[in-house]
């Protein structure tokens, strides 16, 4: 059986999942610090998606940690297919949320400080950046697992 670095059950996958947890939690934290941001739909959408990405990544990080420390790889095609579809869906949803948040923040910054004070805009920009980094790790995990799927 082929060992793909970054596929489910490897230490590289555990590192990817931990990065996803850190970035999605940071994005969620910085968006939830101010209640004023929830008046915009794209900001609420980012909070919702990062609220889904964090427990998904945490549960798969636990599977990866178990697999790494116990040396038992979960290489069943159906399980891997569920992980691939979940990663794929959440990665594109998080990309959409990060892009929409970044574009609304850019629009508000260009509109002036009356619509978005600098403190709020900088938080939402940082949150969109963290969401984009979480997306990149999630998409990388999807590609690694997709690469492994035909060999099962």
Short structural summary:
The chain has 152 residues and is mostly helical. It contains 4 helices and no strands.
Keywords:
elongated, 152 residues, mainly alpha, 0% strand
Rg: 17 Å
Low-confidence stretches: none
Question: Into which percent range does the helicity of residues fall?
Answer: over 70%
The largest sheet, given as strand count, sense and whether it forms a barrel, is: none
Describe the structure.
The protein is built from four helices and no strands. The chain has 152 residues and is mainly α. The longest helix has 35 residues, at 77-111. The model has no long low-confidence stretch (mean pLDDT 88).
Give the secondary structure arrangement, pairings included.
Elements: H1 11-32, H2 41-70, H3 77-111, H4 118-148
